Amino acid sequence: MKYFILLIGCITVMSCVDNTKTNKSYPSIAKLADSYYERTLETFPENAYEADIKLENHNGITSNQLADLAIWENYEDSLYVELLKLKDRQIPKKKDKITYWLLKEELESSIELRVCKRNLWDVNHLSGWKSRWISLAEYQPIGSEELRVQAFERWSKFPIFVTTEINNLKKGLAEGYSMPKEIVDLVIEQLQVLHDYSIENSPFMSPAKRDDNPKFKEKWEELVINKILPALSEYQQYLVLEYRPKARDEVSVVALPNGSECYQAFIRSMTTTNKSAEELFELGQKIVSANETKVSEIGFEVYKERDFAKIIDLINNDPSDKFITSEDILEVNSKLLEKAKKESEKWFIMLPSTEVTIKPYEAHESGIGSYEPAMGDNPAYYRINLNNLEQQKRSFNEILTFHEAYPGHHLQIGLEKDIKGLHSISKLIYFGSYVEGWGRYSEQLAEEMGLYDSKLALMIRRAWPSRGLVVDPAIHTKGWSKEQAIDFMTESGYSADIALSAYYRSIVWPAQLTSYDTGGEEIKALRKMAEEKLGDQFDIKEFHSKILENGSIPLSSLRHNINEWVRNKKN
Question: Quick check: helix, strand or coil at residue 496?
């Protein structure tokens, strides 16, 4: 994919001209990006692992001290002032334009999100600080004396980090910021699971398990027993005894100080658009209505029934859509993954150089399915849940495979990792509306590719997309209750567990559920526009390459690229 990108970037003479007459009074976008890249790794060193970036030292950790956060924010402000001296049209090289788009969107979004004061209410069962430390245990390099020393240097900071986190939450409560009680309860339960592990099975023991030095293993076990677990216990007790009684009952982020501005900032961050909550809500309702009509048509073919609610009920009780065992879930997903990869060769010019394998969730993890990019020598992982047999459906697992693996996230993210020539900040910045938008588009594309095994999946694929586009703004701006939100999702075929999980996600990640269809609808609209304007010149492989060639970029930049491609092709 990446080598193809370099070729198509030079199809027109203008795109390959190196304009050396750039006004010297303007800052260099490359230098600004270099500064951001280096400062980010210095300030948030553990971000390097998820981005698959090599570090010289492995003893650092993101500070949760509010004073250090203020230093970072001052740096963002000064960098943004310099960036504003540049204009898109003043940047001749395509790769530099991409760098400009990434940095501008990231800085503006981050600056807008400050109104939320997220560090004062970071009690999060999905991606909170404890989840990051657990991931860090798996990433922590070991194997040499120097690396062992660095591991102890980093993890000796854990108790201080936890104490600071508690102090931040206390400050948040004093200023009117808290996470809702429902989420606090989930975090308390997760902390208990971590305590209930035997020391041998604790996820914090990962560094010791991966090192063959007996003395290191012994000392690391002492660290976990005497430092890590007591700090977690202190945090859990604080949540139970002090935080939860004072936490808010209202789940809408609008209940926080400057809550309306905060939710709009989350929308900007998650969608890379300035759409309002009302616009997203109305778009979601429109798509849901159209999808229900199509489900009724397919439902009549399958069940001789046109009523949407009755069709969903028939699907939910269809014995052919059930799993018998956990092994059955694994086998079905494995076959779907193999089939989807093979068929993708017909729809894409290139596939990722990395492989993706299935990795079930551990006991302390939660989720219905996800994707983890390849790191170092490890393959990418398609995560699935082998539990809750009564709640899972074969049809849903079909959709999940195509969204998370092929032609979805693995194809898109895997190809992005193969791109050559982009600035290194592309490894640190990504946009959910692009990534999840591609995932949503892939669900539709998979149908065109003939990947679905049953018409039940074709109905479910239409029944629940865009529900999040309705539910999220409804929870945060329209006063929808928990029951309303869950009922709206379960009436589409969601299981009660999945609907509840989505409800909780909307609380801790406001507007994240809107990113899927915001991005998906934009990609569909761009394809329709290109097909109409190019006619017989339209090539689906080339279109996909143009969508994917620059990696994750803001939706406005994606539209700019596709418009440019269409104009060049017509001319």
Answer: helix
The answer to whether 445 touches 347, Cβ cutoff 8 Å, is: yes
Between helix 181-196 and helix 129-139 the angle, nearest 10°, is 30
- Is residue 562 included in any domain, yes or no? no
Q: What is the DSSP string of 137-166?
A: HHH---SSHHHHHHHHHHHTTHHHHHHHHH
Helices (runs of H) and strands (runs of E) counted in the chain? 27, 3
Closest among 6, 554, 74 to 274, alpha carbons compared: 554
Provide the 10 A C-beta neighbour count for residue 512. Answer: 21
Burial of 481 (0-12, 13-18, 19+ CB in 10 A): exposed
Residue-number span of the structural domain to which 211 is assigned:
120-256
Q: Does residue 136 form part of some domain?
A: yes
112: which 2 tokens?
A: 């807008």
Residue listed under structure tokens 């990722």: 352
In sequence order, what are the beta bridge partners of 489?
A: none
Residue 133 lies in a domain: yes
Question: pLDDT for 131-182, tens place per residue?
Answer: 999 999 999 999 999 999 999 999 999 999 999 999 999 999 999 999 999 9
Sequence-distant (6+) residues with CB within 8 A of 79 are 32, 35, 36, 103, 107
DSSP designation for 27: P
Q: How many residues does the chain have?
A: 571
Closest to 556 in 3D by CA, of 184, 220, 104, 244: 104
CB atoms within 10 A of CB 479: 11
Question: Cα(140)–Cα(133) distance, rounded to whole angstroms?
Answer: 10
Q: What domain count does the chain have? A: 1
356 forms beta bridges with 380
Q: Across residues 370-379, what is the average pLDDT?
A: 86
| Nearest Cα to Cα of residue 179 among 116, 226, 124 | 124
Centroid of chain to Cα 373: 11
Tell me the C-alpha distance between 481 and 476, whole Å: 10
Give, as one character, the DSSP assignment of residue 227: I
464-467 own/partner pairs: CB under 8 Å, 24+ apart: 464/489, 464/492, 464/493, 464/494, 465/287, 465/291, 465/440, 465/516, 465/517, 465/520, 466/283, 466/284, 466/287, 466/288, 466/291, 466/517, 467/284, 467/288, 467/492, 467/494, 467/502
What DSSP state is assigned to residue 119? G
Beta strands in 273-421 (DSSP E): 356-360, 370-372, 380-384
Q: What is the pTM of this model?
A: 0.89
* DSSP category for residue 114: G
Contact 91, 17 (CB under 8 A): no
In a domain, 212, yes or no: yes
